[in-house]
Write a structure and sequence with these properties.
Glutaredoxin; Glycosyltransferase; five-stranded mixed sheet; 4 domains; about 675 residues; globular; alpha+beta
Length: about 675
């Protein structure tokens, strides 16, 4: 019989709906039951594409004996970290403080007041490599709860007090200047891997936000070293196994320093950010590789992650059926020479093996290889390769596909909207812009209520119960602002302003300008989460700073500009010290130093070819943080278009900084020169 999770919308929770564990979703009712029964709470946090979450579920939560013990002695609560990032953040901070590391699945034992007292991540079904078994952990916690309750309560209270006493030094309210950005660049140079691209050692994550900073820094200052780090890292990733050489799109990270073997799950946020990065790299350099990867990644997003309602699903699993009924990581993506021969025949298989780096020894498990591009494509025949790719992709489509987490997360859809809008506009793919508009329509129609409050998730067009957090408001506003610049439709600017007003009113500390991850009127946890550092995606803090700055450039709204600059104080503090973990904040700081530039393009009609050409020239500018308004002189869609007239009856562009404008121009080359630092 299904448990309580059967009524949830989260695919991760639904994966556990048939467990014999008597799961509760995170709710007041679960903690009321803990108080009523006198039992401790087992909190288990994970997400649907998490490999070790699936492993622990199969080993322990599907085991009847383990479930019986849990049901007798604990109130078990299951949380999807992607639906409740606030719950995840608060307890992950406690886990990391207590153990020195974290990860998922996260396993935390709580009092009925939500106070943590014992922590861990994955626990095996039997003792292994110094780790206790999950059953041993459960029995130890049960014994401590029964025999030493006062001691447990004391530990829990001390942990909560320690967490509450942690104060974030966000660096004041002064935004970083030239000196801090130069120091950040120097710090990145020291951590850069010149042989392999990227930063640091294994595992290696795509540094998308750091690359955005490097591209913006080069655009503003002309620093060739910044461009080289960005370009070389992007090339190494695009040639490595972390990139899907057949279907496009990036895996979450590489387990090695050389980008060869990925952790195969594909996340919406990674691919949205990287699609935008490669578009911006093409915009800066004209690289054909960057253009191809940007378009292939955009096509992957639309083909494999788009939902019937027009939004974008959260992720694809790393695991899939290997054809024998076993779920194996990477089974969908890897190839052996024999499999190539089966699909392509001997001659083309040898050709493909040379091109993709497939060997008899393999680069992955059991003699299989992850496809790469180890050699220069110029020595291979393009038509023959196109045929090889087409046949391999068709054969792969016959394999059991990885599972898809179909929930629509507002923040990550905002990132996808920005990426598809800009990629479609820059690379002349109007279908991608249409996909961005459809996703934005879904967010407005389903996620946004009549007070402008945003829901975190939806599934199958049904809105979830969880309130949006700061990253949702900020990233969706970022997407709407990009869509406004690309489409010339001011309604998206209006929606962005509505969301950012909530950021000012409900997420910002009036005294310090610091930002919180949850709203002032959100559910109160043991600590109000607040993290300005960028991780796999921009933090809500830095994303909000960027969206506030762009909105102020569009509208001249002083409260939004001031809030953006105050929020950038944390970048001044952290940028020189830990630049890898504040990349988006550094990119926003580059936009502020560059102006940001306000570009207004007016034409006699919206479809005038010369006006469209000027508009595209503005969008193709790498000027950091440039905002673009497009329309006719009589349009009231954008504040930037007010009093903008045609010069000599011709389409005209105005380039301004802080609403102080240069002389208008009427041709593309002159506009490009105006937008060059």
């Amino acid at each position: 019989m299904p448990n309580r999770l059967a009524h949830e919308t989260s695919p991760y929770l639904l994966q556990h709906a048939d467990n014999p564990v008597d799961w509760w979703p995170w709710s007041d009712e679960a903690f009321e039951e803990a108080r009523r029964s006198g039992k401790p709470v087992l909190l288990s946090v994970g997400y649907s594409s998490c490999h070790w979450c699936h492993v622990m579920a199969h080993e322990s939560f599907e085991d009847q004996e383990t479930a019986d013990f849990l049901n007798e002695h604990f109130v078990s609560v299951k949380v999807d970290r992607e639906e409740r990032p606030d719950v995840d953040a608060v307890y992950m901070e406690a886990v990391q403080a207590a153990t020195g590391h974290g990860g998922w699945p996260m396993t935390v034992f709580l009092t009925a007041e939500g106070e943590p007292f014992y922590f861990g991540t994955y626990f095996p079904p039997a003792p292994r490599q110094g780790m206790p078994s999950f059953r041993q952990v459960l029995e130890g916690v049960r014994h401590a709860w029964a025999e030493r309750r006062e001691e447990v309560a004391e530990v829990a209270g001390r942990i909560v007090r320690d967490l509450a006493g942690r104060q974030l030094d966000f660096g004041g309210t002064e935004a970083p200047g030239e000196a801090e950005l130069a120091q950040a660049l120097l710090g990145l140079t020291r951590e850069y891997d010149p042989q392999r691209g990227g930063f640091g050692g294994a595992p290696k994550f795509p540094p998308s936000m750091v690359i955005e900073f490097l591209l913006r820094h080069h655009a503003r200052t002309g620093a060739e070293g910044a461009l080289q780090m960005a370009r070389d890292t992007c090339e190494r990733m695009a040639r490595g196994g972390i990139y899907d050489q057949l279907g496009g799109g990036f895996a979450r990270y590489s387990v090695d320093r050389d980008w060869v073997v990925p952790h195969f799950e594909k996340m919406l946020y990674d691919n949205a950010l990287l699609c935008r990065v490669y578009t911006h790299l093409w915009r800066s350099t004209g690289s054909e590789l960057a253009r191809r990867v940007a378009l292939e990644t955009a096509d992957f997003l639309v083909r494999e992650l788009r939902t019937p309602e027009g939004g974008f699903a959260s992720a694809l699993d790393a695991d899939s059926d290997d054809g024998t009924g076993r779920h194996v990581e990477g089974a969908y993506y890897v190839w052996t020479p024999a499999q190539l021969r089966e699909v392509l025949g001997d001659d083309d298989a040898a050709y493909a093996a040379q091109y993709f780096g497939v060997t008899e020894e393999g680069t992955f498990e059991h003699g299989s290889s992850v496809l790469q591009l180890p050699q220069d494509e110029g020595v291979f025949d393009a038509a023959r390769l196109a045929s090889v790719r087409e046949r391999l992709l068709a054969a792969r489509a016959e394999r059991p596909a990885p599972g898809r987490d179909d929930k629509v997360v507002a923040a990550w859809n905002g990132l996808a909207i920005a990426a598809l809008a800009e990629t479609g506009a820059c690379l002349e793919r109007p279908d991608l812009v249409e996909a961005a508009v459809a996703a934005a329509d879904l967010l407005v129609r389903v996620h946004l209520d009549d007070q402008g409050r945003l829901a975190r998730t939806s599934k199958d067009g049904r809105v979830g119960a969880n309130a949006g957090v700061l990253e949702d408001y900020a990233d969706v506003a970022e997407g709407f602002l990009a869509l406004a610049s690309v489409t010339g439709e001011g309604v998206w600017l209006d929606f962005a302003g509505l969301l950012l007003d909530h950021v000012l009113a409900r997420f910002t500390d009036e005294q310090s300008g610091a930002l919180y991850d949850t709203a002032a009127d959100a559910e109160q946890l043991i600590r109000r989460p607040q993290d300005p550092t960028d991780n796999a995606a921009p933090s809500g803090w830095t994303a909000a700073a960027g969206a506030l700055l762009s909105y102020a450039a569009h509208t001249g709204a002083e409260p939004h500009r001031v809030a953006a600059e105050r929020a950038l104080g944390v970048v001044k503090a952290l940028g020189p010290r830990v630049p890898r973990f504040i990349g988006w904040g550094l990119a926003v700081a580059e936009a502020r130093l560059d102006g940001p530039r306000e570009v207004a393009v007016v034409g006699p009609t919206p479809d005038d070819p010369a006006a469209r050409a000027l508009h595209r020239a503005a969008l193709l500018s790498p000027a950091p943080g440039a905002v673009v308004a497009y329309g006719t002189p009589d349009s009231d869609e954008f504040p930037l278009l007010a009093d903008r007239t045609l010069v000599g009856g011709a389409p005209t562009a105005y380039v301004c900084r802080n609403f102080v404008c240069d002389l208008p121009v009427t041709d593309e080359q002159a506009l490009r020169e105006k937008l060059t630092p």
